[in-house]
Design goal:
By secondary structure, this protein is mainly α. It has one domain. Helix content is about 50%, strand content about 10%. It is built from four helices and two strands, in the order αααββα. It has helices at about 1-5, 15-40, 50-60, 85-95; strands spanning about 65-70, 70-75. It has a two-stranded antiparallel ribbon. A hairpin with a 2-residue loop joins strand 1 and strand 2. The longest helix has 24 residues, at about 15-40. The chain starts with a helix and ends in a 5-residue tail after the last helix.
Length: about 100
């Protein structure tokens, strides 16, 4: 519940019920995605990190996803302090089997 509140659960954008229902759905989806990311791709300190920490370390990285030669490459600056953790998480996500 605490993590959902950090993701915007208590901040309703409108006075209309339909808009707030859509907002709650988006918050629930974001919370689930973050939880699955931590469960499947992260380890150690980042697997137990708060949403604020993950936003700072993962979403603020100046990275570029490059497609070419039938491959995907994630280019992260070597100076980023958490570059190794991000590359490891990306490799784990790409190694997951595709759903059938």
């Amino acid at each position: 519940m605490r993590d959902s509140k950090a993701g915007g659960l208590g901040l309703f954008p409108s006075q209309e019920l339909k808009v707030n229902q859509a907002w709650l759905l988006a918050v629930a989806l974001a919370t689930d995605l973050r939880a699955w990311l931590q469960l499947l791709a992260l380890e150690g300190e980042l697997a137990r990190a708060t949403p604020k920490t993950l936003r700072y370390r993962f979403l603020h990285v100046p990275a570029v996803l490059v497609h070419g030669q039938r491959r995907r490459r994630l280019k992260i600056p070597k100076t980023w302090p958490w570059a190794k953790e991000i590359v490891t998480a990306f490799a784990r996500i790409m190694a997951l089997p595709h759903p059938t």
